[in-house]
Specification:
Blueprint lengths: L6 H8 L28 H4 L3 E5 L9 E11 L2 E4 H10 L16 H6 L1 H20 L6 H14 L4 H9 L5 H21 L8 H10 L8 E12 L5 H16 L4 H8 L10 E6 L5 H8 L6 E6 L3 E13 L2 H33 L2 E3 L4
Antiparallel strand pairs: 1-2, 2-3, 2-8, 4-5, 4-7, 6-7
Helix pairs in contact: 5-8, 6-8, 9-13
Length: 364
């Protein structure tokens, strides 16, 4: 089975815990307000820029060897040179970078920019600080449960999943750490953002209507009657003259149905001049537009069509479900949820970074 495991399958496995892809939004440290540069009195902020140990042959300062360096601090958390190097290594492996924190960058740009890599790591520290503050850490048992469920969804055993990850250069122990972090962040964002998003049925219908050629408040099913005057009987002008004469009688109070029986030139005339029952989009646009502004029982003015002149009466109307809307509403709702999530995540992350004390140690 493993020989047939595709790169795409491994990618799907790696990202299966990400709820939604969203763009992070945050200012660079240089652009933040002065309050975000407040002096940090934590041990991390007061630590030296490098960790140094004496060499085996020389305990003097000149003989000391650089072990690691602090490149940035976020609240009480530090980002070491080794963290940056480890992240650069993660960038070379499939699925080891959380797209949620990549912002507007694509992976290739992120691989090349040290500044953007540090910004990504700052975003990670901000989220992880919130996970700790809200006590949202998950146990190793929860991580193992997710791994087994992941293997089951992909019709693999746990051992096969482990081997599939190893083919991409990812030890299971390393992936367990990544997975634990993603579950915790997912729980954080569910609590802080997702649970507060509301997209109502009215919101979805309004979004659907915006994309229609003739937006409707709902999907109409209506019955319409008409008195028809054919152009072929003396031409368009004569048809309009006959229509005006009958409309004058209607406005004077005469019965529409009686006048329809007396004057309509519809070759398929039915009692009362009933033209039929239609759903939105099923009848000529000029007729649908004319009855759109009528209430049941009301009568239109003269309406021109390619075959002649109509006097229309809206007999009844009801709002029904649009079959196309019913097909698309879940997709529209999901897209609106994601769009709202992305916006709220950017605002939330920016606020948390403003509240954080971020200090950058420039390389020497």
């Amino acid at each position: 089975m493993l020989k047939n495991t595709s790169h795409a399958l491994v990618s799907m496995i790696l990202f299966s815990t990400v709820w939604v892809s969203a763009r992070s939004w945050a200012e660079s440290p240089a652009d933040r307000s002065p309050t975000s540069h407040a002096t940090n009195t934590s041990p991390a902020a007061n630590a030296s820029h490098a960790t140094i140990a004496p060499s085996a042959n020389n305990a003097s300062p000149a003989g000391r060897v650089l072990i690691d360096g602090i490149v940035q601090t976020v609240n009480n958390e530090i980002i070491l040179s080794s963290d940056l190097a480890h992240f650069q290594n993660r960038l070379q492996k499939t699925g080891m970078v959380d797209e949620l924190l990549m912002g507007d960058l694509n992976l290739e740009v992120l691989k090349q920019s040290r500044k953007d890599q540090l910004e990504y790591l700052v975003n990670e520290k901000v989220l992880d600080s919130e996970v700790k503050r809200l006590n949202l850490s998950v146990t190793s048992e929860r991580v193992e449960q997710e791994i087994r469920e992941m293997a089951k969804r992909n019709k693999m055993t746990r051992q096969e999943l482990t081997q599939a990850l190893q083919t991409q250069g990812i030890p299971i122990s390393e992936y367990q750490v990544v997975l634990k972090t993603r579950i915790e962040r997912q729980n954080l964002l569910e609590q802080e953002i997702t649970s507060k998003i509301r997209v109502t049925d009215e919101d979805v219908l309004a979004q659907y209507a915006k994309k229609q050629a003739s937006p409707q408040n709902g999907f109409s099913e209506f019955t319409v009657a008409h008195i028809f005057f054919a152009n072929k009987k003396g031409g368009k002008d004569r048809a309009e003259e006959r229509a005006k004469s009958v409309l004058k009688k209607i406005n004077a109070g005469q019965n529409f149905e009686t006048l329809a029986e007396q004057h309509s030139e519809d070759p398929n005339f039915t009692t009362g001049g009933i033209l039929g029952t239609f759903k939105t989009g099923e009848i000529a646009k000029e007729i649908e537009d004319a009855v759109a502004g009528l209430n049941p029982g009301q009568i239109s003015g003269l309406v021109q069509s390619k075959n002649g002149v109509h006097i229309l009466k809206l007999v009844s109307r009801k709002i029904t479900s649009d079959p196309q809307f019913e097909k698309e509403k879940d997709r529209i709702r999901a897209a609106m949820m994601e769009q709202t999530f992305q916006k709220q995540f950017r605002i939330w992350l920016n606020q948390k970074k403003e509240e954080s004390v971020v200090h950058f140690n420039p390389p020497k």
